[in-house]
Design goal:
The complex is a heterotrimer of chains A (341), B (441) and C (166).
Chain A (H helix, E strand, L loop, with lengths): L1 H8 L4 E7 L15 H11 L4 E6 L10 H7 L4 E4 L23 H10 L2 H9 L4 E8 L4 E5 L13 E3 L2 H9 L3 E3 L3 H10 L4 E2 L4 H7 L7 E5 L7 E7 H6 L2 H36 L3 E3 L3 H21 L1 H23 L1 H6 L1
Parallel strand pairs in A: 1-2, 1-3, 6-7, 6-8, 9-11
Antiparallel strand pairs in A: 3-10, 4-10, 5-8, 5-9
Helix pairs in contact in A: 2-10, 5-12, 6-11, 8-10, 11-12
Chain B lengths: L2 H19 L3 H17 L7 H9 L6 H14 L2 H12 L6 H14 L5 H18 L4 H13 L8 H10 L3 H29 L9 H5 L3 H27 L5 H18 L5 H34 L2 H8 L7 H15 L5 H19 L3 H15 L7 H9 L6 H24 L2 H10 L2
Helix pairs in contact in B: 1-2, 2-14, 3-14, 4-7, 4-13, 4-14, 5-7, 5-12, 6-7, 6-8, 6-10, 7-8, 7-19, 8-20, 9-10, 9-17, 9-18, 10-18, 10-20, 10-21, 12-13, 16-17, 16-18, 17-18, 18-20
Chain C lengths: L1 H25 L4 H9 L1 H14 L15 H35 L13 H5 L1 H25 L7 H8 L3
Helix pairs in contact in C: 1-2, 1-3, 3-6, 4-6
Classes of the chains: A alpha/beta (341), B mainly alpha (441), C mainly alpha (166).
The complex binds sodium ion (2 copies).
The site of one sodium ion has 8 residues of chain B, from loops.
Chain lengths: 341, 441, 166
């Protein structure tokens, strides 16, 4: 009878490997509350040891950005990263991490869980034999560190900035010279003025890199990354082979990680920003409004050009924008006034 | 011990065996890794191999290897390096060990522009070893000096070890860079004192240029030579360093300023012609590929080490950790040193440190100080036979007649000097912590 | 192939230097040119493997080797070249699938303005190790000839390359 079969299956033990795009020891990205290693431990305990996931940080099994190919191939069963790292393979994937001037964290979570976002994500990955879930969120990121204050749009012209991805493209439209640099070289380059500005993550992670020792102007609202979703990538065959209860444990542990990592980020960023301003002489403020609105115009053009060039992007873009429209009207009357109280 | 643990030991033994027999180091690494891995976990994990290889050849910081090697080969082919050392040797007068000092200084200056040991050792080796041999320096002292000087870049900022450690210990890169500055200079000074002492007590090992030959050259000519032969390469090093300090180039790309400068110097020195350029490109390609060959073939070895649970074996040593902060530090240093006999430093830092460091956080140990001690120790692992990267790299560019034994024997005193430096840092933590606090990094 | 790799060395030096100078003087720095910097390392490292083997620039530990008889040395050389063939073959074979996967994904740079066709870059892995395999075969024959005539000096080709300045 089916009952006996499922009882037998549920005794089976699964040993899986998870790789990570971030180096060993990184808080949030590798360890700490709501991190991928925390997720693996939670899954182990929730399943009573039936699902063991061994975690490998970047470089331990494979280099940082090789997780997608390894999981698709099935040599590794899971990977922790951000979907925008796969933009070179699936351009539409970047919408599942963050969109410049897009949804904030609350809106992003709503779109993913209740606005059809997660379903689109699964559809997009299906042909590659993959499935993905959100497994964390840094919350809003920061515009970045600038050696000199930025007062007008023309100050951006000729500025040398470390900024990867879509935001880099937007900045370059305004005359910024985009420099790609690995994490370890950001500090020396900014400190010596090889670059004039650098974007990294948020107060807690940026302070850890020491960026405040290299530049004092910290522009805050992360127009380019209003939220940032950590992706749990799973090989679809492996996922399908797991019993229902273990699948549910994975989903619930991932959701718990989203909440816990976000709460952790908010708390630590608040502490770190206060410390930076009060003890390190950092000047923290948003970019002047005219610059932000210019960036917004260019972003909007860039996004719609992207959407018109690729059918998959178009589909995700339309869903995302429709949801944002709806969510923004709601938020403008709920959260926005609340923050001004 | 489990079957896989025996395989780990067999893998290390197999590697050492093949290597000692005279099989190329790279091939020995790859073969032992593949065989032990295949016996232990079959083929599965090896499907990850291409991703690791791709990671090596697309690693941004490794750009510095071909760039620095190009600079070195170009200076060698245009005889700039040879003239420089000769002139320095003459300028040092009767001081025994004088040319050795020049090599340490070149190591410090190059170390301040890169952290890639392969690039520095190969470049310094190419530039200086033939001249030292001709001048009657003992092969082993020469080799030891070059290896030690070439690894200084690991502790002198900027440095890959420090960047990686900053992630693991959670201190900013800038803090660690500042903290490593004085220890790096101390280490270089210890080397210099050692060479000077050799010059006094064992002068036949590090002879000065004979007085009669020096007498042939007038003071005026010497000063002219200093300008003609020493200034250009010195300017080159300052071009590299200056472009970093002056905010022109990030550390890795700065190497290109050296390469471009070497090209210009060759043109100005009239040593430049198409045939010479082709030879330089040939030399750069052969030497860079030799370094990459080892880095690539280390991948199957590291992958098998992990796949077989070698990291778990290291973690099991953790149970032996004695109580007390002092005992724990001593234990950590010994473990790192021993692992350095057969593992690459990145693998060591990934496997051992995240496990050990929380213990020290509990003791309230100063993590900056500990990180610099660890960096110094890892640097030592580049020098310790039989498996020290610096030794292999130097062997690759050494002229005929320099044996592995010369290199192994030559580095031993420098390993001892490094230990001495470690003890000094242990006794006087302020040497590490003072500068970052003073400049507020 | 050696010529292509040598050209890449020169291109790398000029490319990185040009990027630095353009950025410093004119604040120009296209993402594609920056990516090209590290794209040039793959051909240098991977095509260079067989090239450096051919020019006998591999690193070996020789304190026993130099004491061996000519015959024993030839045996070690034979063993080395057979193992080289095996390593070249295994890695080339493993990485063919890796390249095919990248081709099927039509993989390119994740950065806008970056370079497309990343599978071409990845194809240097099987190509480089495939050439290493061929070099191993050639070295095998060289070792066998040496083994058959242990009294003769090394074959002319080997002697020439050994004396070539490195
Ligand atoms: Na350095
Ligand atoms: Na070692």
């Amino acid at each position: 009878t089916p009952g006996i079969v499922s009882a037998a299956a549920s005794k089976e033990t699964f040993n899986l490997k998870m790789t990570n795009a971030y180096p060993p020891g990184s808080p949030f990205y590798v360890q700490g509350p709501g991190s991928p290693t925390d997720f693996c431990q939670k899954v182990g305990e929730m399943s009573g040891g039936r699902l063991n996931i061994s975690h490998f940080a970047a470089g331990e099994l494979i280099p940082a950005l090789e997780g997608f190919n390894a999981v698709a191939q099935g040599t590794v069963e899971m990977n922790a990263a951000n979907a925008y790292f796969w933009a070179g393979k699936i351009p539409a994937a970047q919408f599942f991490t963050t969109v410049p001037f897009g949804l904030n964290t609350q809106g992003m979570m709503s779109w993913l869980y209740h606005g059809g976002g997660l379903k689109l994500w699964h559809e997009l990955y299906e042909p590659y034999g993959l499935i993905a879930f959100p497994m964390g969120n840094t919350g809003v990121q920061m515009t970045g560190w600038f050696r000199d204050p930025i007062e007008t749009v023309s100050d951006l012209n000729g500025l040398k900035m470390r900024i990867p991805g879509l935001a880099g493209k937007v900045y370059s439209e305004l005359g910024v010279s985009v420099r790609l640099l690995p994490g370890g070289e950001i500090f020396p380059a900014l400190e010596r003025g090889v670059i004039d500005a650098a974007e990294f993550v948020g107060p807690y992670q940026d302070r850890r890199l020491g960026l405040h020792k290299a530049a004092k102007n910290y522009y805050t609202t992360g127009w380019h990354e209003p939220t940032n979703v950590t992706e749990l990538l799973i090989n679809k065959k492996v996922w399908d082979s797991l019993p229902k209860d273990l699948q549910m444990i994975i989903q619930m542990a991932a959701q718990a990680s989203v909440l816990e990592s976000l709460a952790w980020s908010e708390a630590n960023n608040a502490d770190a920003l206060r410390d930076l301003v009060e003890n390190e002489g950092v000047i923290a403020k948003p970019l002047p409004a005219p610059i932000v609105s210019r960036l917004k115009e260019v972003t909007s053009d860039t996004l719609s050009t992207m959407a018109n060039s690729d059918e998959q992007i178009k589909k995700v873009y339309d869903s995302f924008m429709a949801f944002k429209d709806k969510h923004s009207s709601w938020a403008s009357l709920s959260e926005k006034p609340l923050l001004n109280l | 011990m489990s079957g896989n643990e025996w395989l780990v030991i067999g893998m290390i033994a197999g590697f050492l065996g093949l290597m000692i027999l005279g099989v190329p180091v790279a091939i020995s690494l790859a073969v032992s890794g593949f065989v032990a891995g295949y016996l232990g976990f079959g083929t599965n994990l090896f499907y990850l191999m291409p991703a690791r290889l791709f990671g090596v050849v697309t690693n941004y910081t490794l750009l510095a290897i071909p760039l620095f090697v190009f600079m070195g080969v170009m200076l060698e082919k245009s005889k700039v390096a040879e003239n420089m050392l000769e002139t320095i040797g003459k300028a040092m007068g009767g001081l025994n060990g004088g040319m050795g000092l020049a090599i340490i200084l070149v190591g410090v200056l190059m170390g301040a522009s890169t952290g890639i040991v392969g690039a520095t050792v190969v470049t310094v080796g190419l530039l200086t070893l033939p001249a030292l041999m001709r001048r009657g320096y003992s092969p082993s002292v020469s080799c030891g000096t070059i290896c030690a000087s070439g690894t200084l870049g690991q502790i002198i900022p900027p440095s890959l070890v420090l960047i990686l450690l900053s992630d693991i210990v959670g201190e900013s890169v800038g803090t660690l860079f500042a903290a490593a500055f004085i220890p790096g200079l101390i280490l270089a000074s210890i080397y210099i004192v050692y060479l000077l002492l050799l010059g006094v007590f064992k002068k036949e090992l590090v002879p000065a240029i004979p007085a009669e030959e020096r007498a042939l050259i007038s003071r005026k000519k010497l000063i002219k030579d200093l300008f003609a032969h020493v200034m250009p390469p010195l300017l080159l090093v300052f071009a590299v360093l200056g472009s970093i300090i002056g905010g022109v180039a990030a550390p890795t790309e700065a190497a290109s300023m050296g390469a471009l400068g070497a090209l210009l110097i060759a043109v100005v020195a009239k040593g430049f012609n198409p045939a010479m350029l082709k030879e330089t490109l040939h030399g750069t390609l052969v030497i860079s590929a030799m370094v990459f060959f080892i880095l690539l073939c280390a991948q199957p070895f590291s992958l098998a080490f992990r796949g077989l649970g070698g990291d778990q074996m290291v973690h099991a040593m953790f149970d032996l950790l004695p109580g007390g902060e002092f005992g724990a530090i001593l234990f950590l240093m010994v473990v790192l040193f021993v692992l350095g006999f057969f593992l690459e430093w990145i693998e060591i830092s990934y496997i051992a440190l995240p496990m050990f460091l929380p213990v020290f956080m509990n003791y309230g140990t100063d993590m900056v100080w500990l990180a610099i001690m660890v960096a110094m120790n890892l640097q030592m692992s580049f020098l310790t036979p039989p498996f020290g990267w610096a030794l292999f790299f130097l062997k690759g560019v050494a002229p005929k007649g320099i044996t592995t034994r010369d290199i192994y024997v030559g580095v031993l005193p420098f390993v001892a000097l490094q230990l001495l430096a470690l003890v000094v840092l242990f006794q006087f933590p302020a040497l590490v912590t003072w500068l970052p606090e003073a400049i507020g990094w | 192939m050696g010529g292509l790799a040598r050209f890449c060395v020169l291109a790398l030096v000029l490319m990185v230097a040009t990027n630095v100078i353009l950025r410093y003087l004119f604040s120009i720095g296209p993402v594609s040119l920056q990516e090209l910097e590290w794209h040039l390392v793959s051909p240098i490292a991977l095509l260079g493997l067989s090239y450096s083997m051919k020019h006998r620039a591999d690193v070996r530990i020789d304190f026993l080797y130099e004491r061996f008889s000519v015959r024993l040395r030839a045996l070690v050389d034979l063993l080395s070249s057979l193992l080289t063939v095996a390593i070249g073959g295994i890695i080339a074979w493993l990485s063919i699938f890796y390249v095919i996967q990248s081709y099927n994904l039509n993989e390119g740079s994740p950065d806008p303005g970056g370079l497309a066709f990343r599978y071409l870059l990845k194809a240097f892995i099987p190509l480089g190790f495939g050439l290493l395999l061929l070099q191993g075969v050639a070295d095998c024959f060289r070792a066998l000839i040496q083994l058959r005539n242990p009294d003769n000096a090394m074959p002319v080709a080997a002697q020439l390359t050994a004396e070539e300045p490195v």
